Fold this sequence. Notes:
The protein is mainly α. The chain has two domains: 79 residues, Transferase(Phosphotransferase), domain 1 (Orthogonal Bundle); 40 residues, no CATH class. Helices cover 50% and strands 0% of the residues. It is built from seven helices and no strands. Helix 5 packs across helix 7. The longest helix has 18 residues. The model has no long low-confidence stretch (mean pLDDT 85).
Amino acid sequence: MIVGHSYDGSKVDVWSCGIILFAMVCGYLPFEDPDTHELYKKIKKGDLYLPANVSEEFKDLITRVLEVSPAKRYSIEDIELHSWFKKVDKPVPTLGIKVGSDIIKADPTVIHELKNMGFDITHARNSIEVNKQGSDLAAYYLQMKKMNR
């Protein structure tokens, strides 16, 4: 995103969650600089300083999650298979959807309400069914929630 290329939202989300995970484990952010230009240079370079007290498994996972190249960056599925992640005894809940990857069957009643609101139904249905982020999907979920009250 910093270099202005198009991006895969799920890969960006993994990287963002990696920043949070890094901060939770290490106690500081992986990339810091008071000068925004310098901060962006550090992010684009991807050099991480990891403290000696973190495990080799964590080092391996976090470097793969914070990989600069989105094509090489770990996916959610890769993370779930990593040995550091698997140390958690409780199974990860599978409730919910993964935005941009899970297919959704659009509710015709909600679609009808979107039509009444002025949405292009063909576009809205396509966006909803492929789970594409945007105003159509947001309006769909808001309308569904309103109707379920």
